[in-house]
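Next comes the chain:
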Amino acid sequence: MILGLAGAGVAAANVAGQPSTVIIESAPVSKRPAFETSSVAEQSVPRHSEPAPPPATSAHVRYELLGPPLAGFVAFSAARPGLVEPRSPVQLPWRTEFDASQGFIPTITAQNAGEGAISCRITVDGAVVSDVTSDGEYAVATCTGNVIAGD
């Protein structure tokens, strides 16, 4: 069996038990694209008169919990990425604050210890980025946001 790819200028032959042969036909020299050459010294590199100001690198994060007198379980992401701090039980109302770097994703989850509504809230630099309330027996509230440090 012979397979021909005329558009690409390639032909192949494959016979059971024998190796395949590939023939590549090259385009005539006059049809090959011309490549431009230049030395690195000839290329100009734009120069900036002043360096760009560094981006803001941290923001103030606050977690808050409200609800019945006791949360049965609380877990939240801490200032260091990847670190989760579980706590059990936690007296409500409860809050903690810390500074976090740009791109940090604050998350807190709380479960009440029985009946009633439990609420979580995350603020970043004083602005509320998440506020969730869950109601019911052993209800769970989860808040999440993003630290985008201001200018």
In short: The first strand starts at residue 2 and ends at 5. The CA atoms of residues 14 and 20 lie 5 Å apart. The mean pLDDT is 74. The two ends are 68 Å apart (CA to CA).
